[in-house]
């Protein structure tokens, strides 16, 4: 096993909210410290750790400043480049660049595409995935595709995923809000709508406004629909926009001669 060329542990005390925390940084090739620029650079399988979150990348840069309250140096931002893997109890994430605003507790991940993965779902986004650790929330933007274990797919332009602890104390994806050009594709049907709500625990997607269900050429229109990803079945309801009625177009089945 290749030894680490340089190791710096607990480089700078990091005060976040009322709890004292530390970021540790190491790399296989080198870690340099520029006190004048208040910058550290880690090269070669660089690894940064903070509590239960770990980020790995080919190269990292960390900037720090003196905390006016404590008088201690505080890391203010971290930037990572190439082959990024971020692991946490909530999910793993993958991308090409990562920008961590420590003060505002915001991580922006970009890739081709950026990817967020749990044990049950995988979400990819063309623009970026922004992760808020303290809020237990992730926001994905741009040509998003979410896939579950049964290969059901959800497409949209914006998704907001919320996490919480299950009965066993493990962090799981609790719900996902879906916006803009929403489309659900299962083995039995394709459903489109203006917005939706995905409930992973129930394997249910609720869809709202301008809902269209297309099942092998048979089409139903309404204002609200619910799709069960486990069974592939969908139901649709009318509302004010559809004037209290569900409309449909049904394809005539050809009889064999």
Q: How is this structure best described in words?
A:
This protein is mainly β and 257 residues long. 0% of the residues lie in helices and 68% in strands. It is built from no helices and 19 strands. The protein has a 6-stranded antiparallel β-barrel. A hairpin with a 4-residue loop joins strand 7 and strand 8. The N terminus is likely disordered.
What series of H and E elements makes up the topology? Answer: EEEEEEEEEEEEEEEEEEE
pLDDT under 50 segments (min length 5)? 1-20
Look at the structure and give the mean pLDDT: 82
Q: State the shape.
A: elongated
* Alpha plus pi helix count: 0
Labels describing this entry:
6-stranded antiparallel barrel, disordered N terminus
Give me the secondary-structure topology.
Blueprint lengths: L5 E11 L2 E9 L2 E5 L4 E12 L2 E14 L6 E15 L4 E10 L4 E5 L3 E4 L3 E5 L2 E5 L4 E12 L4 E13 L5 E15 L4 E10 L4 E12 L2 E11 L5 E4 L9 E3 L8
Antiparallel strand pairs: 1-2, 2-4, 3-4, 4-5, 5-6, 6-7, 7-8, 7-9, 8-11, 9-10, 10-12, 11-12, 12-13, 13-14, 14-15, 15-16, 16-17, 17-18, 17-19
Summarize the structure.
With 257 residues, the protein is mainly β. The protein has no helices and 19 strands. It has a six-stranded antiparallel barrel.
């Amino acid at each position: 096993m290749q030894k680490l060329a340089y190791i710096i542990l607990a480089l700078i005390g990091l005060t976040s909210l009322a709890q004292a925390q530390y970021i540790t940084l190491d790399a296989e090739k080198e870690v340099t410290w520029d006190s004048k620029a208040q910058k550290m650079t880690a090269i070669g399988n660089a690894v940064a750790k903070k509590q239960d979150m770990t980020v790995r990348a080919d190269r990292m840069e960390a900037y720090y400043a003196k905390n006016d309250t404590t008088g201690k140096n505080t890391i203010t931002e971290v930037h990572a480049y190439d082959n990024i893997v971020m692991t946490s109890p909530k999910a793993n994430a993958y991308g090409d660049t990562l920008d961590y605003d420590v003060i505002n507790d915001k991580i922006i991940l970009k890739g081709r595409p950026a990817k967020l993965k749990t044990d049950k779902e995988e979400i990819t986004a063309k623009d970026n995935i922004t992760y808020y650790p303290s809020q237990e929330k992730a926001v994905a933007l741009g040509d998003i595709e979410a896939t579950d274990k049964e290969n059901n797919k959800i497409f949209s332009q914006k998704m907001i995923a919320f996490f919480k602890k299950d009965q066993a104390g493990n962090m799981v994806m609790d719900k996902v809000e879906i916006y803009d050009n929403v489309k659900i594709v299962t083995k039995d049907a394709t459903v489109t709508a203006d917005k939706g709500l995905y409930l992973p625990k129930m394997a249910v997607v609720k869809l709202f406004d301008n809902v269209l269900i297309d099942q092998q050429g048979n089409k139903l229109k309404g204002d609200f629909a619910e799709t069960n990803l486990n069974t592939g079945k969908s139901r649709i309801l009318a509302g004010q926009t559809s004037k209290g009625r569900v409309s449909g177009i049904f394809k005539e089945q050809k009889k064999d001669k």
